[in-house]
Fold this sequence. Notes:
The chain is an all-alpha fold and about 200 residues long. It is built from three helices and two strands; from the N terminus they run αββαα. It has one domain (about 5-160).
Amino acid sequence: MSTDHTHDAGESLLAxxxxxxxxxxxxxxxxxxxxxxxxxAELLDMIASARSVVPESIAAADSIVAxxxxxxxxxxxxxxxxxxxxxxEAARLVQMESVLDQxxxxxxxxxxxxxxxxxxxAQDADAxxxxxxGRFENELAAISSQVRAGRQYLEKTSGLxxxxxxxxxxxxxxxxxxxxxxxxxxxxxxxxxxx
Length: 195
């Protein structure tokens, strides 16, 4: 893969996060509350899409590191060839012992430059992947907070049993819209201001 694929994966992730932000900002607000009503299925689908893109970003960064290793390997091969050529020349021209020393010095210089370049590329790839993951973490935390507030509001106003964070709502075992005593359940419309 090339660095272009890394940017493509990162841009896909940002597009998903922007859509999630749009959904939350444009969601219908609850009366007298900072909470909002969002389509749970659609939001969960976006979160799943975002989670699937993250490994692509990391894989693309790993590919950049692999490319850097290939550059280093080619440099080592080139250096070995230079040393071999220098040794052959030194054997043919015994009186020119400096030829071999120069070849080895050149080989060492090439290896040093290649190692420096490979290290910089690896660091850039790690920094990019870390930046994308950090942004995704922040955006996801903000969206999760909005979703949690919405669920808590619904549980409080509709009488639904409270579910642990990350779990689906508990079904109404007394029958849809009914209380255990058989009477129709009347949802409470009072809302608490969570701002």
